[in-house]
Target: Ferritin-like domain-containing protein
Amino acid sequence: MSQKDLKEKTIDKSAPSKSEDSKTIPVEEPKNTSKSAEKSLKDTTDSKDTDNNTKKNQSMEDKNSNSELKTFFVEALQDIYYAEAAIEQSLAKIKNKATCEELQEALEDHELVTKKQILRLEKVFKLLGKEAKKKKCDAIDGILKEVDEMVKNTEDGSMTRDVAIIIGAQKVEHYEIATYGGLAQIAITLGYEKVADLLEANLDEEEDTDYLLTEIAEEHVNFEAAEE
Model:
């Protein structure tokens, strides 16, 4: 055998045949499905959580519809509804008896705020499916009567009267703060989240007014009254 024939035979053995080529199976790259699977699982979990929360809230509302706490809650709302109407009338009278311009403005502003708070309470009753009714509140009647007496016992146009008005107004504010704070927590306990939001809005406004009255007293009214 010549050297040329030997070389051609070697090349034929090393080259793959057509049949061997046809048997080669292409290897596919693995698809990256982990992210899509994760997203799908998360969506399913979120959907189940939402459904469970909805059922839980609905169950809580059904359970509390005739509970003793729910009855107390509604009666307490009727109580503060009466109180806000009485406070609005009181502010309309007292604001004109203040001497300090800053105090007058604060009382006028809170009169408008009180009107808004009454509207919020009416929304609360609507959310609960209850009629917006007033229940006589002996506590606020007593506080407002005391405020009137404090004002009458001070000299007209004096800063001492302004001191009395501020103290009286803060007694009212503290009653409202205690009431709205307690009612908001009961609403949360009963599962009435929208109701709680409305009550907390009223609470925030009462706290702001209380802070403003303290500021007015401490900055100048108390000092000016001490010089009379």
About this structure: The first helix runs from residue 3 to 14. The radius of gyration is 38 Å.
